[in-house]
Amino acid sequence: MDTPTDTRTTETRDATETNDTTETTRSRADRLRVLATSWSRAHRELILQAADFADSGEWALEGFATAAHWLAEAAGVETCTTREWIRVGRALSEFHATAEAFDSGELSYSKARALTRILTPENEFELLELAATTPAGEIRRALANWMTQNYDEAELAEYHQAQRSVRHRVDPDGMIGFSMRLPPTTGAHLIAELARTAACARRKREGHLEWPTLAQQYADAVEDILGRGGGGLQAEIVLHVRGDGCTLDDGTPIAGSVVEGLAPDAFLRAMIHDAEGRPVNVSARRRHPDARQKRLVKERDRVCIDCGRADLLEYDHDPEFARSRRTLVDELHLRCAPCHQARHREMASPSDH
After folding, report:
1. Inside any domain, residue 37
2. If you average pLDDT over residues 132-157, what whole number do you get?
3. DSSP label of 327
């Protein structure tokens, strides 16, 4: 007789507990929104005041070397953080539309920090529109794409060269932390070599620990590369060549002039896309044929196509690589070393006719 009543009581209690949990979750979320809004407002004011303080010289009266050092001590953060506050604040003082968007909260600090690295009076409004429609987590790549499409390629390459840097610091646990800014092809080469080295390594559990993470495998790859002197890097990098520009395999934009200026024996391979963005061909933009191409040419020619010799065979470009700048199976032929050298001597000598 008591069972129905007990069931209803239990259901009522469960519903009450669920409502309490929901209310607690909702109140926590609302509280976090309030805190995030307050923090953002205070952070915006801090950025603007930091720049004014740095320009005032007041920090020198207290014996500090720079305003960044004063701010770092006052806020309990690292000087690299306060230097960024000052840089962003100073940039905002020069770009009023960006400053207004930042002050109103329309532009977050993350976006302002990225934008102020490349803002000019000419591009300010265009970049603000871009930032308004791009999530903060994607703003850096969106800006990189914009720069690739709007900057002169030679100027962009010069800018990348000027911005390169490698920094290191000692962390509290004694580890060494690195921060690097590398031109796209250099960075892609490093990433590809780390990935290749990590993939070739024989992973194993370390005592009772789990399998090493990808980051740990990359750290082991760095040690392996250093152990062999960094020589003989064989990693391959894929370039995507589209109508709207070139990118690395992960989407990082790269100037077309960089692709065109690659050395004949570069570590890059171009992937050609059609008008609808579908990959249609992958051709080796390097002097030496890869293993697949060698197999095809050897099966087709078998012997030197000039004298029929079956030894000392080499792969000859026709037309020569210096003119075609590509390595395709249809433009490769087997020639023995003497015939190969004789052909190139003949091409190099002035015509008798």
Report:
1. no
2. 87
3. B
